[in-house]
Amino acid sequence: MKKKVMIMALACAMAAGAKAQVYSYDRRMEMPTRDLYDDDMMNMLLRATAETAQRRKESFRQYSQMATEAYKAKRWSQAINYVNLAFGTQYENGTLYYIRGYAYEQLGDYKSAKKDYKKGVKFYSVEAAQALERLKEERKRK
């Protein structure tokens, strides 16, 4: 059975043009990697990845700015929406967790506010830590 598998693997490798070599003392096939990768394709992929990361970073900056403006104007639903869009770019920020948590708190969703404040604390947001303590104190009084 092993013999049939080795013969079949050798035939497939030769048919694919991978230039496989099998040595009598080595049971596995040695395959050169330079024939398997195209430098131009790899460079194109790296450029595309860098451009995508730059666009995500710029989108995060823009959505963060819009979330901050909505927060200052006390437009809580818009602030939440912009923070969600900012987090959709795969970046996170403690201040944005605070903004969304505060917006949730103003809309009466204390559970979501507490959750966001805790996440903000993990990102070393002083405002989120203070808001979390304030929220805990208010909940104890009630």
N-to-C CA distance: 75 Å
| Coarse shape | elongated
Secondary-structure element sequence? HHHHHH
**What is the architecture of one domain at the second tier of CATH?**
Alpha Horseshoe
Largest sheet: none
CATH homologous superfamily grouping of one domain: Tetratricopeptide repeat domain
Rg over CA atoms: 28 Å
Walk me through the structure.
With 142 residues, the protein is an all-alpha fold. The chain has a domain at 55-141: Tetratricopeptide repeat domain (Serine Threonine Protein Phosphatase 5, Tetratricopeptide repeat). The protein is built from 6 helices and no strands. It has helices at 2-15, 39-72, 76-87, 94-106, 110-122, 126-141. The longest helix has 34 residues, at 39-72.
